Amino acid sequence: MRLALFQPDIAGNVGAILRLAACLGAAVDLIEPMGFPWSDKSRRRSAMDYESRVEIARHADWEAFEAQVPGRLVLFTTRGGTPLPQAKFEAGDTLLFGSEGAGAPDFVHARADLAVRIPLRPGLRSLNVAVTAGIGLAEALRQTGGWPE
After folding, report:
1. Do the beta carbons of residue 79 and residue 106 sit within 8 Å?
2. DSSP class of 84
3. DSSP letter assigned to residue 103
4. β-strands 2-6, 94-97: how paired?
5. Mean pLDDT for the stretch of residues 44-63
C-alpha cells in the first residue's frame, strides 16, 4: 500500500503523513512541486524520528509519478463518486491525496481508477489531508489484511 501526495502545501501535514506511513507500513510518494522546501523544520518536527523508517519517493512532476504507479490509483477527493464505506481496496493500491489549497486538478481525477469521498455532515467541506490519509489508509489496510502484526 502506498500514499501519494499531489503537490502538498503544508510541511507539517507531510510530516504527519510520513509518521503515519512509517507506523502502518506504507510507502509515500511526493509529487512536486511542493509548497515548502524539503528541509522545512515543521516537516521534520511533525515526522519526528519516524521519517527514516518510511520509504519515500519524490517525483519531479505528475508525469514522473504517473509513469511508475504500480497498481490502481485511488483518489480521495470531496468530488469522489464512491463513498468510503462502499469503496473496495486492493493490496497494491496507491491512495492519492490532493494539495491542501487546490485539491486535485481535473487531469488527476481523469487518471484515477477510483475516486473516493469520506462522507461528512451536511454543510462541512473537508477534513485535514493528514486526517483523511489516516482514515483512508486504515480502511484500506482493514480490507486487505495489511495491518502490521
Report:
1. no
2. G
3. B
4. parallel
5. 93
The amino acid occupying position 116 is V
* Contacts (Cβ under 8 Å, ≥6 apart) of 28: 2, 3, 4, 5, 17, 18, 21, 54, 55, 56, 57
What cell does 66 get?
Answer: 504517473
Cα-flanking dihedrals φ and ψ of residue 44, to 5°?
-65, -40
Residue with the larger pLDDT of the pair 67 and 42: 67
**Which grid coordinates are listed for 110?**
481523469
SS3 content of the chain, % helix, strand, coil (to 5): 40, 20, 40
Q: Please report the domains of the chain, with CATH numbers, ordered by start residue.
A: 2-144 (3.40.1280.10)
With a pLDDT cut of 90, the percent of the chain lying above it is: 89
What global pTM score does this model have? 0.95
